[in-house]
């Protein structure tokens, strides 16, 4: 039984990797090259983030989080900027990291992000929205980033599910025992395009985006989210075969027929 679980998990991992690598060629040609405004960043493995060392262009007004005067990019931001030709990323030895190497870092699940989340982020940014991770302040004065403090809320399960090369059968049992499966989790705060946006005072998002990976939320769950977010709208997003779909729910009262 355990052996079958191990084989199944390895098959899922290999399938996910093949799908990701097939899409790389498509993504490389999806955006124009902004070679005149190329910023530079250094990848920090302990943080699974890129620290920006040279800023160029206006995109930094709405991208990256600021801690103790330094700007850091989550992996979804890093990949998006590389794909549009606006960022070069170096490793600790000042060696240029290729896009393929960063895709592999996305696949290892240590960044608090996974492939579907990146596709959602890229889709929204391509439409001009301002997008930030839910629950992570854009700017905090006098605070440095610590390892493991900037994961997406609710993404621990996703990270564990992506680590699909168990060392032994006992680790598989422990994985399932510790895993808390949730169908939806808050991923991003999304703001309408705004030339006056400020990281120091972003205001309430236009909506909070939840990622749905399995079945739709129940009525009870949706009502709980309405109470949680109050006046802030929330939407759901689902990714299937690279296609990003957004949906929301509205209350409707049907008239009582005689």
Q: Count up the helices.
A: 7
- Overall SS class: alpha/beta
Task: Tell me the series of helices and strands, N- to C-terminal.
Answer: HEEEEHEHHEEHHEEHEE
Number of strands: 11
Task: Give the DSSP E fraction (strand runs of 2 or more residues).
Answer: 15-25%
CATH-assigned fold name: Trna Endonuclease, Chain: A, domain 1
Keywords: tRNA processing
Family: Belongs to the SEN54 family.
Domain tRNA-splicing endonuclease subunit Sen54 N-terminal: 37-89
GO biological process, one term: tRNA-type intron splice site recognition and cleavage
Structure description:
The protein has 258 residues and is α/β, with parallel strands linked by helices. The chain has a single domain, classed as Trna Endonuclease, Chain: A, domain 1, CATH 3.40.1350. It is built from 7 helices and 11 strands. The strands form 2 sheets. The chain has a 6-stranded mixed β-sheet, with helices on one face. Strands 6-8-9-10-11 form a 5-stranded mixed β-sheet. It is elongated, with a radius of gyration of 20 Å.
């Amino acid at each position: 039984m355990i052996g079958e679980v191990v084989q199944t998990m390895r098959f899922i991992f290999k399938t996910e990797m093949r799908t990701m690598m097939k899409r790389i060629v498509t993504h490389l040609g999806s955006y124009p090259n902004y070679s005149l405004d190329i910023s530079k960043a250094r990848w920090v493995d302990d943080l699974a983030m890129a620290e920006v060392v040279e800023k160029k262009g206006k995109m930094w007004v709405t991208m990256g989080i600021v801690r103790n005067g330094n700007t850091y990019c989550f992996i979804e931001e890093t990949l998006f900027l590389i794909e549009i030709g606006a960022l070069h990323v170096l490793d600790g030895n000042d060696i240029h990291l290729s896009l393929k190497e960063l895709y592999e870092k996305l696949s290892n699940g240590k960044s608090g992000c996974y492939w579907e989340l990146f596709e959602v982020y890229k889709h929204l940014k391509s439409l001009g929205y301002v997008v930030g991770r839910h629950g992570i302040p854009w700017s905090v004065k006098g605070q440095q980033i610590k390892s493991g403090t900037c994961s997406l809320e609710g993404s621990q399960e996703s990270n564990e599910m992506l680590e699909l090369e168990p060392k032994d059968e006992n680790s598989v049992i422990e994985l399932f025992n510790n895993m808390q499966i949730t169908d939806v989790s808050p991923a991003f705060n999304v703001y309408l395009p705004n030339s006056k946006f400020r990281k120091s005072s972003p205001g309430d998002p236009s909506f909070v985006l939840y990622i749905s990976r399995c079945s739709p939320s129940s009525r009870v769950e949706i009502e709980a989210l309405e109470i949680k977010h109050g006046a802030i709208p929330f939407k759901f997003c689902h990714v299937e075969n690279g296609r990003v779909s957004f949906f929301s729910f509205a209350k409707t009262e049907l008239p009582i027929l005689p």
